[in-house]
Amino acid sequence: MNGRVKGFRSVGGSQRFLAAFSGISPHFRPRRHLMTAPGHRAETTNRFAIRDQITRTADRLTAV
What we know:
The protein is an all-alpha fold. The chain is built from 2 helices and no strands.
């Protein structure tokens, strides 16, 4: 395997991961250069709170 697969078992596996992750990753990467430090901290806190709400809901659904 070449070095580009980065721990995935196949190129297809890495492509599936990246396809799913590309829709999620911008949520955790606000455009830092466009905000103040306090604004960035507040936005990051808010985004992680949203993530926590979503993952708790998902945990409850899978536990049923």
